[in-house]
Structure formats: structure tokens, C-alpha cells
Amino acid sequence: MNAAFLFDESFKNHACQHYHPERPERLDAVVEGLEKSKAWGPAYRVEPRPANDGELERVHDPGYVETTKKTLENRSGGNLDPDTFFSEGTRHAALCAAGGGIDLVTAVHERKAEWGWAIVRPPGHHASISAPGGFCIFNNIAVAAASLLAREDVERVAIFDWDVHHGNGTQDQFWDNPDLLFMSMHQWPHYPGSGLSDQIGGSQARGKTVNFPFPAGMRDGDFLAVIDDVLTPMLGSFRPDHILVSAGFDTHRNDPLSGMEATSECFGRMAARIKGLADEICKGRLTLFLEGGYDLDALTSSASFVVRGIDGTLEDHSITRESTPSSAGSEIIKSTLNEVVPHWPDIF
Ligand SMILES: [Zn+2]
Fold first, then answer.
1. Looking at the 3D structure of the chain, how many domains does it have?
2. Given the residues 60, 126, 165, 242, the one annotated as active site
3. Known catalytic residue: 126?
4. What is the pLDDT of residue 322?
């Protein structure tokens, strides 16, 4: 079965008047990678459509939805906060990134496609309950996850966030929800500053938020160790009906905004592992949402590797120097496990 993609040229109409790293060309770079991987042509296409207020209000405050939509009607553009710009095309793009994301995960749920990828802008994972942030306006992946949890035939959803920044918006929105497992690995200290190991969820959902605040310089082996040593056993126990990924590519070694050392191949290897888990646990249901990633060549090559990882054409290379975790990475993984282990008594 083919992939499903949510992409539309209108997502490029969200554009800053001055140079900004979160720029329309990022989408073309991802699409180029998908074309190279041959996944693009035969894919199932999800048409973008605006999310309605009820769909947004599953994770956003109604007052935030109302005032933000009103602000975005200003055609001359501006800023929602110092980092987060908007332009004439933003209102449509932001609403369609969220609404199209719902239809994408629904298509994956209904088996219209084997897996999905929302290639959208603006990104979403820093958009919190009642605030924009870090180039994000509405939290696309959270809106989609909440739409799945609203279904009678879905009980649990997992979100894995491999963007180099902590997914603070998603964490806040599901902080006390035991049906959503949120795991984020990110550079720390770095924007937005949250995501320490002891942030593990509210009283109803202790251990369902899992954070890896890695120092700069982490390599492939550190990221893969999180998947092998923590995500894999947790998903085996949590048994989600869907796995969603906040797929940011600013963890890449060439990214201009961050200091990590992930290779393009690392994204493919992470995707391969997560698709394997989805196949084992939730009928293969896996959907990626584009978040950050600001080096265009890195976006292209990483996107191509992701598809090869998911469709099984990425060779499982022998263990390289970068495939084992560093001592600094292992320390962080250990500290996080110390925090969450009491809440996962059956697996650790
Ligand atoms: Zn990011």
C-alpha cells in the first residue's frame, strides 16, 4: 500500500516579508526528497481543508482560537510573538495544516494508505493551549491526535517528537491525559527551555510524558538508543492505536539553528524502527508531521532516507561508531528512566 501525503502549494503562502529560516522553500526541499525516493508519484493525496473551531478547541483554548483567527485576518501580516510571523496566506495555511492533518490520520486509520506524512507549514509543536510560539500557530499534531482520541475505536495515541526543540506545546496539551504518551528528545539548554527529565506528566498521567534533554553534540547512536531502550518497551506496554511523529529535521548536523550531529541516514533508521513498532503494535498506523529543519539539503536527503526507512529499502548497516550512545547521552537516558520507571512497573 502507498503512503498518504498532505501537501499543498498554499502552505507556501505563509511567508515572512524578510528572510526567516522557517521559509516556503523548506516544503519544496522535502518534496524533492520524496520524489527521489519514488514515494511521491503513487501516493494517496489528502486535500487540505480548514480545521473548524471545535477541532482546534480540543487542544486550544477557545479564546485563543478566536483571537488568533481574528488577528490572522489582517492581510498586511505581522507577528504573533517575536518569533512567530504571519502573512496574508497564513490564516488559510495554518487552518489547513491542522484540518488536513486530521484528514490525514483519518485516512491512515481507515487504511486508505499504509502511513502518512503531513508536509505542512506553519509547524505546530510549540503552539500551546493558549499561546503561539517558535514559528507555530496551531498545534497540528496535537489537533490530529485529539481527533483520533475522540473516535470510539481509538483508545490510545503515542507521539514521538524527534525535532531538536522540546515539543512544549504538545506536552502542555496532553500533560494530564493518560491516553496520550508523549516522548520528546531535544537539545537542552535550548529553545524553549522546557523538557527536563523530571517533567513526567500530571497526577492523572504520571510517566506518560517522557523527556530527554540532551546536550549539544549528540550523535545517531544517542537518538537510536532512545528508540531501542525506551520507546520500544514503552510502546509495547502502552499499546497505542496510532503512532504520530513530530518530525523535525533540525537535529541534523548541518542545521543552522542547533548543535546536534544526526546524519540524514539517522532519520531513516529512526523511521524504520518506528514503522516496525507500528507494524507490530498498531496495524502499521504511523503518521509524520513536519516540524522544524532549516537546512534545505539536509531536509531533502533526510526525507528520502525516511521513506526508505519506512518502506524497508534502507539497508540495515552494520553498527558504526555513531550507532552506540555516547556517555553523555547514556547519562541523560539513565536520568530520565530514573524519573519514569516507577510509573512503568511492568517493563523496567
Ligand atoms: Zn525545531
1. 1
2. 126
3. yes
4. 56
Peptide bond into 256 cis (omega under 30): no
Q: What is the 8-class DSSP label of residue 48?
A: P
Whose cell is 481543508? That residue is: 49
- Report which residue type is found at 228: D
Residue-wise pLDDT for 132-167, tens only, equals 999 999 999 999 999 999 999 999 999 999 999 999
Q: Are strands 286-290 and 115-118 parallel, antiparallel or unpaired?
A: parallel
C-alpha cell at 201: 506528566
Whole-number Å distance between alpha carbons of 108 and 114: 6
Is 159 among the domain residues? yes
Q: In which band, very low, low, confident or very high, does the pLDDT at 317 lie, cut at 50, 70 and 90?
A: low
Measured in Å, residue 307 CA sits from the centre of ligand 1 at 20
Residues lining ion ligand 1 (Cβ < 5 A) are 163, 165, 248, 250, 292
Measured in degrees and rounded to the nearest 5, phi and psi for residue 186 equal -155, 165
121 close to 8: Cβ distance less than 8 angstroms: no
Please indicate, yes or no, if residue 348 is contained in any of the structural domains: no
- DSSP letters of 271-340? HHHHHHHHHHHSTT-EEEEE-----HHHHHHHHHHHHHHHHT-S--PPP-GGGS--HHHHHHHHHHHHHH
CA of 34 to the centre of ligand 1 (A): 21
Which run of H or E residues covers position 85? Answer: strand 85-86
Q: Indicate which CATH number applies to the domain containing 136.
A: 3.40.800.20
* Structural domain containing residue 187: 3-343
For 41-69, the pLDDT digits (tens) are 899 999 999 999 999 999 999 999 999 99
Q: How far is the CA of 248 from the centre of ligand 1 (A)?
A: 6
Q: What are phi and psi of 44, to 5 degrees?
A: -75, 130
Residue 225 grid cell: 538508543
Q: Is residue 248 part of a domain?
A: yes
Q: Tell how far the Cα of 86 is from the centroid of ligand 1, in angstroms.
A: 18
Residues in the chain: 348
**48 in any annotated domain:** yes
